[in-house]
Amino acid sequence: MSRTFVGMPKFPVAAKQALANPQLRRNLNHATHTIRAKRGRVVGEVADWEELRHQGAEAKDRVLAHLDTYLLELEEKLTAAGATVHWARDAAEANRIVVSLVQATGSEEVVKVKSMATQEIDLNGALEAAGIRAWETDLAELIVQLGDDLPSHILVPAIHRNRSEVREIFLRQMAGVGRAAPEDLTDEPSRLAEAARLHLREKFLRAKVAVSGANFAVAETGTLVVVESEGNGRMCLTLPETLISVVGIEKLVPTWDDLSVFMRLLPRSSTGERMNPYTSMWTGVTEGDGPQDVHVVLVDNGRTNVLADVVGRQALRCIRCSACLNVCPVYERVGGHAYGSVYPGPIGAVLVPQLKGLTGPLEQSLPYASSLCGACFDVCPVRIEIPELLVHLRAAVVDQHRGGLPSGEALAMRTMAWTFDRAPRLEKAQNLATGVGRLLGDRHRLGRLPWPASAWSTARDAPAPPKQTFRQWWDETHGEQR
Known about the structure:
With 482 residues, the protein is α/β, with parallel strands linked by helices. It has 23 helices and ten strands. It has a six-stranded parallel beta sheet, sandwiched between helices. A four-stranded mixed beta sheet has the order 8-5-6-9.
C-alpha cells in the first residue's frame, strides 16, 4: 500500500523530528543552494525580469477573474479537437473518473507523467485499490515510489535523498517491480539515470494508458502543455493509446501570447534553465499520431473556495515552480515532509489551508511555518504575496478560536495589551525587567525559561533584559535637555 500524508502531525511536531536528522539537513542544504544559485544566474540575464513577473501575475489574475468563461472556452476547443472533457468537484470524483476510464480500456497498469494534481488527489492510491498499477516515470518520483516514501519538494520530490541512498533503493527494489538494477551499480548520476532508463523502458513500450497533468492549458486553442527535463513525459504522451490528463482548473492561460510569458518565467524559476529540455504540447487527437483516446479531467477540489477569498485567491496564480521552497530558511532546515502535504514550503503553507480549509491541527499550524522574511515573494515569478497571505491566514486561525477558554498565547497577548495600554503600567514592567537585567550581570541570554514560557524558549534564545530602559538612558545622558 502506498504511503499518504493522511494523519500527519501538525507542523511544529513534524519539524522537530526533521531537525533531529542531520543527514536530511545536509541533503537539503546542498540541493537548495545549488538550485538557488542556478536560478540567480539565469534570472540575472533577463533585463526585463520584473516586467515579466508583472505580466505573469496579470495574466493569471485575468484568468481568475473570468475563470468560468475561460473554462468553457477550453472545453469547447478540446471537444472540437476530439478530446473528452470531464468535470470533477473533488478528489473522490476525479479518482472515480480516472479509474473508470482505465478500467474501460481493460488495462491493469498505467505510466504516469509527474503531476502535482494527481498527487494532490492521491490517484495512485485509488488506482491501487482498483487493482491497477501506476508506474511513476519521472526519475525523482520513481525514487520516491520505489522507496515507499513521500515527496518532499514540488520540483524534486526526492530532494531529501542523496546519491548513495538512491543507489540502495534501486538495488533493493527494482527487481521486484520490473527490470533489476545492475549488480555493479554505483552512485554516479549517469549510472543511476541509466538504471532508471532501462527499468522504465519496458514499461513505456508495454503501457496502453498514460496519465499526465499539465503545466498550462491554453483556453484559446485547447492546448495542454507539459514541460520536463528528462523525456519521460514525452514517452508517456506519445506512445500509449489512451491519455488521461488531470488538470487543476486554475492552470489556464488565456492565449498563446500569455503562454510565451510563462515559458520564460517557469524554467528559470524552477530548474534554473533558460528553457526546458522537453516541452510537449498537444491539442486533442491527431489522427495517426499519438494517443487516439484523449481525456481531460478538470479538477476543482477546493479551488473555487480559494477563489472566493479576495486576498487568498492570489495563491491560485502559482505555476508550481518551487522557487519559494529553495530560498525559504524554514524549508531548508526541515524539508517537505514536515508540511504534511504534497505542497510543501511557503506556497504549501498558504495553499493547503485554503484548499482543505482550516479544519484540523495541521492546517491551522501551517500559516505559522514561516519567519515572514519575504524571500518567497522576492523570487515568485507571478508575484504571490505569500507573507501577506500567511498573516491573513493567521488572523483566520485566531478568529476561529475566539470565545471559550483562552490559550496560553492568548493570555500572554492580553497581558501585554493591558501592560501597554497605560504608560505607568509599562514603566513599572520596564523597571522590573531592568532590575532582572542588572541581577544577571554580563549574561546576554536567559536560555530555557520555566513553564509556561518554556514552550517559547525551547525553540529560541531568550535574550536577557537590558540593564536600563531607553528613558533611563536618555535621562542619564541628556537629562539637562528635557
